[in-house]
Specification:
- With 344 residues, the chain is α/β, with parallel strands linked by helices.
- It folds into two domains: 203 residues, Rossmann fold (3-Layer(aba) Sandwich); 95 residues, UDP-galactose 4-epimerase, domain 1 (Alpha-Beta Complex), CATH 3.90.25.10.
- Helices cover 40% and strands 16% of the residues.
- The protein contains ten helices and 13 strands.
- Strands 3-2-1-4-5-6-11 form a seven-stranded parallel sheet, sandwiched between helices. The protein has a two-stranded parallel sheet with strand order 7-10.
- The two termini are 34 Å apart.
- The C terminus is likely disordered.
Length: 344
């Protein structure tokens, strides 16, 4: 790194909760490349994702739902900046989902806030979701009221309200980042995986629940750049909500068809509008104007370019281990995730 262009994060102690997740693991790599001292907090083995040999990376084995465990780990690492990305995902509604999001998305957030405040932390960056806007008009922006439709989105709204409470009570700097669907190599099972898997399996027809919903897919490397830019200027942005997206709104059915074309397939897509979830957001898009004005960020990777990279990665994995995509689908169904998970 050129010393004249050194990142403001050089030498800063940065903690990521949910560090073994898709965004958290790749954000850790990006922050390490910027010269930060990174702590990866997780309860699922986030220390074994290829960074254990980096002397500036430390894995914290911690259950955020346990306040004492959280306090001890944060006191020992003493982070100056915290990215709170740990969360239970959106899934099929029911009692188990309600209780899971309350514990993982509200209680864990409160424990992280309290422990971070107690150890003298400076900036808390809340990994929020565009799903909190529900079916409001688009493009979404900071001033729009939230209209959460699912227990996941309701819990995300509650978590952000607690962040703002800690600002009022303790003058803790907090910023919310609300991304749309984040995708790319290393992603969890979602629509992209499903379509790629169907093509590789030689299926002739792909059936989708719904299809008219829109998303604005955001490539993972653009997402990590946005999080990093916000960390660099976050204290002067305290209390703000920054929405980020890939910049192009596309329907789910058009997204599936684009993937099929990029793979050279003629597979047909059938949609069943009657099977769409009652908690589904119909449109998800922001124009990134606020992010550009606040931190100079805008996406660099086109949807086609990002999809090509993601498809190549999934095809490579399939070539090494044939059951990969089908196993991913089975695990998602067992977890109660709809057969057509769309992300944020």
């Amino acid at each position: 790194m050129n010393k004249h262009n050194a990142s403001p994060l050089v030498g800063r102690r940065v903690l990521i909760t949910g560090a073994s997740g898709f965004i958290g693991s790749q954000l850790a790599e990006h922050l390490l490349s910027e010269g930060a001292i990174v702590g990866g907090l997780d309860r699922t083995g986030g220390g074994i994702l290829g960074r254990s040999s980096n002397r500036n990376y430390f894995f914290l084995d911690c259950d955020l739902e346990n306040l004492e465990d959280t306090r001890r780990n944060l006191r020992e690492f003493a982070p100056q900046i915290l990215f709170h990305l740990a969360a239970h995902p959106d899934a099929k509604e029911g009692p188990s989902q309600y209780h899971a999001v309350i514990k993982a998305n509200i209680l864990a957030t409160v424990n992280a806030l309290e422990s971070f405040r107690a150890c003298g932390g400076e900036l808390f960056i809340y990994g929020d979701s565009s799903k909190v806007y529900g079916n409001t008009s688009i493009p979404v922006c900071e001033s729009m009221p939230v209209q959460p439709l699912s227990s996941y989105a309701i819990a995300k709204v509650a978590g952000w309200e607690y962040c703002k409470l800690f600002t009022r009570l303790h003058d803790l700097a907090v910023v919310s980042v609300r991304p749309t669907l984040v995708y790319g190599p290393g992603q969890g099972f979602n629509l992209i995986n499903r379509v790629v898997g169907a093509v590789l399996d030689g299926q002739q027809v792909l059936k989708l629940d719904g299809g008219n919903q829109t998303r604005a897919p955001l490539y993972i490397h653009d997402a990590t750049r946005a999080f990093t830019a916000i960390a660099e200027k976050g204290r002067e942005m305290s209390g703000r909500v920054i929405s980020i997206s890939g910049g192009s709104e596309i329907t789910v059915v058009d997204l599936a068809q684009l993937i099929i074309r990029l793979m050279g397939s003629t597979m047909h897509v059938e949609v069943d509008l009657s099977r769409m979830r009652p908690t589904e957001s119909m449109r998800s898009y922001c124009d990134n104007q606020e992010a550009f004005e606040a931190v100079g960020w805008e996406p660099r990777v086109s949807l086609r370019g990002g999809l090509k990279k993601t498809i190549d990665h999934l095809v490579e994995i399939r070539s090494r281990t044939e059951p990969f995509l089908n196993e991913g689908a089975a695990v998602s169904r067992q977890a109660g995730i709809q057969a057509e998970p769309l992300g944020n």
